[in-house]
Write a structure and sequence with these properties.
The chain has about 425 residues and is an alpha+beta fold. The chain contains 15 helices and eleven strands.
């Protein structure tokens, strides 16, 4: 597989990776703007655009967009993150030109019909209500609020009921015009793709004058803003999250942290999964995960359990991380974790969608794509001492302990 890159005079970056023998083609457009780039009254603008761009273009209705992609067995989708927004299409290889053309049409020529804005507003408001009702999602949001408070990274990417309800069509269109210009976009493709064809599509992107994006507010807090956060809800389960400040996306310890997190709660062989689910039967869903941004990061351990077991499970989540600090990881844990991360990374290289997403994420976050061999070398270079060092770096600090459900402050350790 060969990565090709072309930087167009418009400022658009085009990156492709052809995969010999691939039966699918995946295309993506990464926008270098996300939830942390919104002002308080703009909260949810990026996510609103994620929805709205699929409602129709200047040449197609929303239904026609859906019919065109489904007629070839493909899919169009998108996601909003704190530091980027991504739109992507995946189609069978013979329909590569269809997927590329549809993606470019959606991203560059949205209709912004006033009726569509109103109908999608209602959809997003319902999504916000659902997010409030889903305890597992809400406790993860609560954990980042506890870590970073009023900072945009602590804010839900969906926005709020108030901001979405008040957001006018012209304000959303203005946000699009300001940020969706070629110099702020990365067009990526992987699988059964032709670099020249993707470049040609990129050259047809409308030239828009770059708007001024406010400078991102950096993070200075070394400890959680709130050490406990409780949101009482009449749910069937108690949802618990224990959160630590993590590492930025370019931190040299990020590979060691990936191994450390895998040992803690990243898989079926992890400490948290084995202790809480397999040995004690206290939870069905239990895991830990890492999030990284340009200047910050987080590690969050989650479990959903019965209310009467919440205090015990919370203690086990905290103690799992504390055990890595006190006693370190075993050689076998280190071997298993590194083996899993390497294997899952290699398996992902067989899927055009995963390869396409890797291109978009790397270029958007770092300006370039880290070679596969370099990533593998850095992962393989992680030693047991590296894992112990990063465990001390992250988990020696007091975490934020958060809960959603029929809980009390006692359940959170207060």
């Amino acid at each position: 597989m060969t990565i090709q890159r072309t930087d167009l005079s418009s400022g658009l970056t085009v990156v492709t990776e052809a995969m010999p023998g691939a039966r699918s083609a995946s295309f993506g457009c990464w926008v270098r703007v996300g939830a942390r780039d919104e002002t308080d009254d703009q909260a949810g603008s990026s996510h609103f655009l994620e929805h709205l761009l699929f409602k129709g273009t200047e040449s197609r209705t929303g239904r026609e967009v859906s019919e065109a992609i489904e007629a070839v067995g493909g899919e169009l989708n998108a996601h909003t993150a704190h530091e980027h927004t991504a739109f992507y299409a995946r189609v069978p290889a013979p329909a590569a030109s269809v997927g590329l053309e549809l993606l470019c049409d959606v991203v560059t020529s949205p209709a912004f019909d006033a009726d569509d804005v109103e109908s999608e507003r209602q959809v997003i408001l319902e999504e916000l209500h659902l997010a409030e009702d889903e305890g597992d999602d809400r406790v993860l949001s609560l954990a980042h609020e506890a870590l970073w408070g009023d900072h945009p990274l602590g804010r839900e990417v969906l926005g709020t009921l108030a901001t979405i309800d008040a957001m006018e069509r012209d304000a959303i269109f203005g946000f699009f015009e300001r940020h969706y210009h070629p110099a702020n976009l990365v067009l990526v493709a992987a699988g059964a793709v032709d670099h020249a064809a993707v470049v040609a599509a990129g050259e047809r992107f409308p030239a828009r004058v770059a708007g001024v994006r406010p400078a991102r507010t950096g993070l200075t807090a070394a400890a959680p803003v709130e050490h406990t956060a409780l949101l009482r809800r009449p749910l069937e389960q108690a949802h618990l999250a224990v959160a630590w400040a993590g590492l930025a996306a370019d931190d040299q310890d990020r590979y060691a942290l990936a191994v450390c997190n895998q040992i803690l709660g990243g898989g079926l062989a992890s400490r948290l999964f084995q202790e809480i689910r397999e040995e004690r039967g206290l939870a069905y869903s239990v895991y830990s995960s890492v999030a990284s941004f340009s200047d910050a990061g987080s590690v969050v351990a989650y479990a959903g359990t019965g209310t009467e077991r919440a205090a015990e499970v919370r203690s086990l989540l905290v103690e799992g991380a504390a055990g890595l600090v006190a006693g370190g990881a075993t050689e076998r844990e280190w071997e298993v974790a590194r083996g899993y991360l390497e294997g899952s990374f290699l398996l992902g290289l067989e899927d055009s969608g995963s390869v396409m997403a890797r291109l978009g994420n790397h270029v958007c976050a770092r300006g370039t794509v880290t070679p596969v061999d370099e990533q593998l070398d850095k992962l393989r270079a992680v030693t047991l001492d590296d894992v112990d060092r990063v465990a001390h770096r992250i988990f020696a600090a007091a975490p934020a302990v958060c809960g959603v459900g029929p809980l009390t402050t006692h359940d959170l350790g207060d």
